[in-house]
Design goal:
By secondary structure, this protein is mainly α. The protein has a domain of about 200 residues. Helices cover about 60% and strands about 0% of the residues. The relative contact order is 0.10. It is found in: Golgi apparatus membrane; Membrane.
C-alpha cells in the first residue's frame, strides 16, 4: 500500500460506482493516491519510529575527554534529585531495593559529591580551629591553623576516591568469578548483563554518604567527650547503614559479601572516629604546669627537713 496507517484511517472521498464496468455495485478504491492533511501534533507524534517526538533530543555524551561537552553528562541533575539523594544517604531504609540500578546507575552525577566534599573540607577545617580555640581558652598566643584545610582535604578526597575504587575492583574480581563458573556449567552460552555497579556510580554513592558529617562536624565543636563519641556512633550508623542499603544488591552477588559488608562499615566508622579524634577531641592528660608545683613543694619540704636535722645534730 502507498498510504500509511493514518491515510487509511482518515476520511476521504471514494467513488461509489465503477463507471468503467457499468455495473451497479458499489466499490471502494483503497489504493487511491489522495493526499491528506496532517496537523502539527500528528506530524510530531508519528515522525519518530522509536516513539521519541521530533524536536526533542536525547542527551548523549559526545566529544573527547578534553572538551566540556564530555563532562556535561556528569552534572545532568536538578535540585530535587540532589536533595533526594542527600536524604537517601542519611536515612536508612529510605532507598528501595533497586535504587542503585534504577536511580544511580542510570544517571550518576558528580555535582552533588563535589559540592559535598568541598563543603565538608572547609567545615571540618573551620570547626576544628573553633574547637582548638575553645580548648585553649585564656591562651593569648593561640593562632589559626591553616594546615587543617590541607589535612582534611587529603583525608576526605582519599576516602571518596580510593574506597569506591577498591570496592569496585574487588566486586569486579569476586562477582566475575561466579559468572565464569556459571557459564562453564551451562551447555549453552548465555549473555549475562553486568551485575556490578560502575566506578562512577560508586563514587557518586560514597560522595553523597559524606553529607551527614557536615552538620556533625559543627556539633563536634562542643567539648564534651561523651557527646562527641555519641555523634560519631550516630553519624557513622545512619550514613553507613544507608550506604549499605544502597550497595547491598550488588554486594550480595559477591562470594565474599560478609567480608565486604564488614569492610564498608569499619571504613565508615574509622573515618568518623578519625575526624573527631584528630580535629576536635581534647586529650584528657595532665599538663606539666599542674605537676611541676607539686614536685617543687615535695623537694622544698625534703630540703627543709634535712636542714633542720643537720642543725639539731
Amino acid at each position: 500500500m502507498d498510504g500509511t496507517l493514518e491515510d487509511l484511517l482518515s476520511f476521504k472521498e471514494f467513488p461509489l460506482m465503477n463507471e468503467a464496468s457499468g455495473s451497479g455495485s458499489a466499490q471502494i478504491n483503497i489504493n487511491s493516491p489522495q493526499r491528506s492533511f496532517h496537523s502539527p501534533d500528528e506530524r510530531s507524534s508519528s515522525a519518530d519510529q522509536d516513539g521519541i517526538p521530533t524536536g526533542t533530543t536525547t542527551a548523549k555524551p559526545g566529544g573527547s575527554i578534553f572538551s566540556l561537552e564530555y563532562y556535561q553528562q556528569f552534572f545532568n541533575v536538578d535540585t530535587m534529585i540532589v536533595v533526594d539523594r542527600i536524604a537517601t544517604s542519611m536515612i536508612p531504609k529510605r532507598a528501595p531495593v533497586n535504587y542503585l540500578k534504577l536511580n544511580i546507575a542510570t544517571n550518576p552525577d558528580l555535582y552533588g559529591p563535589i559540592w559535598i566534599v568541598l563543603t565538608l573540607i572547609f567545615t571540618i577545617a573551620i570547626s576544628g580551629n573553633m574547637a582548638s580555640y575553645l580548648q585553649n581558652t585564656g591562651n593569648h598566643q593561640w593562632r589559626y591553623n591553616f594546615h587543617l584545610v590541607s589535612y582534611s582535604a587529603t583525608a576526605i578526597i582519599t576516602y571518596a576516591l580510593l574506597v569506591p575504587a577498591a570496592l569496585w575492583a574487588f566486586l569486579q574480581w569476586s562477582v566475575r568469578g561466579i559468572e565464569l563458573n556459571i557459564e562453564e556449567d551451562e551447555e549453552e552460552q548465555v549473555e549475562i548483563e553486568p551485575t556490578t555497579p560502575s566506578l562512577l556510580s560508586l563514587v557518586c554513592v560514597y560522595g553523597y554518604s559524606l553529607a551527614i558529617y557536615i552538620p556533625v562536624s559543627v556539633l563536634w565543636t562542643i567539648q564534651v567527650s561523651l557527646f562527641q563519641w555519641l555523634l560519631v556512633i550516630t553519624g557513622a550508623f545512619l550514613s553507613g547503614f544507608a550506604l549499605l542499603t544502597i550497595l547491598m544488591p550488588a554486594v550480595r552477588k559477591s562470594r565474599y559479601s560478609i567480608l565486604i559488608v564488614l569492610a564498608i562499615e569499619l571504613a565508615h566508622f574509622a573515618l568518623a572516629a578519625g575526624f573527631m579524634l584528630y580535629f576536635f577531641h581534647a586529650p584528657d592528660v595532665e599538663t606539666p604546669a599542674e605537676v611541676t608545683p607539686s614536685l617543687h613543694k615535695v623537694t622544698t619540704s625534703v630540703v627543709v627537713n634535712a636542714t633542720m636535722h643537720s642543725k639539731s645534730a
